[in-house]
Inverse folding.
């Protein structure tokens, strides 16, 4: 099953995605956007274990992002920390292929993911964490209606400098008016 936007579709991860995904998440720029921790390269064994752990029966939903124009696997997104009682979910997204960054693929994937969460899962709020050094991601989230809900000042140490951890969110009622 796929979910389609104007530029991308969200689909299941496939075994043939493993090598490219490993390359993407070991890219220092992508790795820095995914974690504030000290980044160590992920091994092919770890990536294969991650792939094998994907299950449609879990509360973590993982999608590969594929460009519609050429069917290239370009990144990934996920829904985790689903709190069914309070109707809140946490998301993450990355565009691993540098040729597709800054061209609207990430915002289209975010719109498709957001629509899936609100319209298929019936969640009331989507939240995410982004780091202040990731300005392009912040612009993407804001472009799609997400607002800054809180800032943990100077909480991330990276490259001999401190950065903010930013919490952003979007409510279903806000989404329906966009």
């Amino acid at each position: 099953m796929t979910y389609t936007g104007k530029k991308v579709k969200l689909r299941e991860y496939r075994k043939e995605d493993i090598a490219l995904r490993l390359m993407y998440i070991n890219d220092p720029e992508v790795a820095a956007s995914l974690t504030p921790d000290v980044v160590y390269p992920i091994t092919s064994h770890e990536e294969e274990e991650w792939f094998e752990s994907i299950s449609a029966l879990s509360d973590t939903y993982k999608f590969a992002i594929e460009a519609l124009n050429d069917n290239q696997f370009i990144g990934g997104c996920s829904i985790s920390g689903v709190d069914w009682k309070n109707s809140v979910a946490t998301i993450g997204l990355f565009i691993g292929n540098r040729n597709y960054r800054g061209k609207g693929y990430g915002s289209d994937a975010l719109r498709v993911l957001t629509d899936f969460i609100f319209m298929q899962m019936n969640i009331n709020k989507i939240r995410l964490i982004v780091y202040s050094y990731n300005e392009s991601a912040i612009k993407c989230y804001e472009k799609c209606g997400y607002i800054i809900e809180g800032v943990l000042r100077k909480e991330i140490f990276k490259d001999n400098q401190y950065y903010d951890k930013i919490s952003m969110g979007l409510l279903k009622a806000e989404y329906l008016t966009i």
User: Anything to note?
Assistant: The chain is about 30% helix and 35% strand. The CA atoms of residues 24 and 165 lie 23 Å apart. The radius of gyration is 16 Å.
